[in-house]
């Protein structure tokens, strides 16, 4: 039976994508940028829950669970904060920009969606939810000193934190991994409220 790789996310508007594109361009000016696999700005999203491989027949059931998780939330605003990385400078693996704005509402929404999905068989993440927007993943061959150099570059970048967007909906998204990067397809859209 066919399986599709899926996740639940908030898609970003063009304003936030443009700011993230500028941050990436600044980071990519340094020769050290070659150690990163950079996410296409149009593909950057705020993941609420990674589901993994599912049967396509489960899409309606999963969409209904997302609807239950979203129904009590009115639209809210998010903005960008400064960049960072996981897990630390010496073992840097992911480059990201943080999320600001109505973060408490975002955290409650994520918990609500995760709880609704847990009820249909998708267990909660063991790690706590830390809202972030992934800009790059560091290649396995990068040496610790290269990772530390990249961490210094990240710490020096300033993000335009004045840009914001109104979150009005949550999406179930399919992710097809290709040699050129992931291709995302929206499977369903759930409005807030």
Structure description:
It is globular and about 45 Å long. The protein starts with a strand and ends with a strand. The model has no long low-confidence stretch (mean pLDDT 95). It has a five-stranded antiparallel β-sheet with strand order 2-6-5-4-7. It has a four-stranded antiparallel β-sheet with strand order 3-1-8-9. The chain has helices spanning 14-28, 59-70, 103-118, 144-156; strands at 4-11, 36-38, 45-54, 76-86, 94-101, 132-138, 164-167, 169-178, 181-191. It is α+β, with helices and mostly antiparallel strands. The longest helix has 16 residues, at 103-118. Strand 4 and strand 5 form a beta hairpin. Helix 2 (59-70) crosses helix 3 (103-118). The protein has a single domain, classed as Cyclic Phosphodiesterase, Chain: A, CATH 3.90.1140.10.
Q: TL;DR of this structure?
A:
The chain is of the alpha+beta class and 193 residues long. 29% of the residues lie in helices and 37% in strands.
Task: Throw out a few tags for this protein.
4-stranded antiparallel sheet, 193 residues, 5-stranded antiparallel sheet, alpha+beta, 4 helices, 9 strands
Secondary-structure-derived class: alpha+beta
E-strand count: 9
Taken as a percent bin, the fraction of beta residues is 35-45%
| Order of strands, widest sheet | 2-6-5-4-7
| CATH-level-4 superfamily name | Cyclic phosphodiesterase
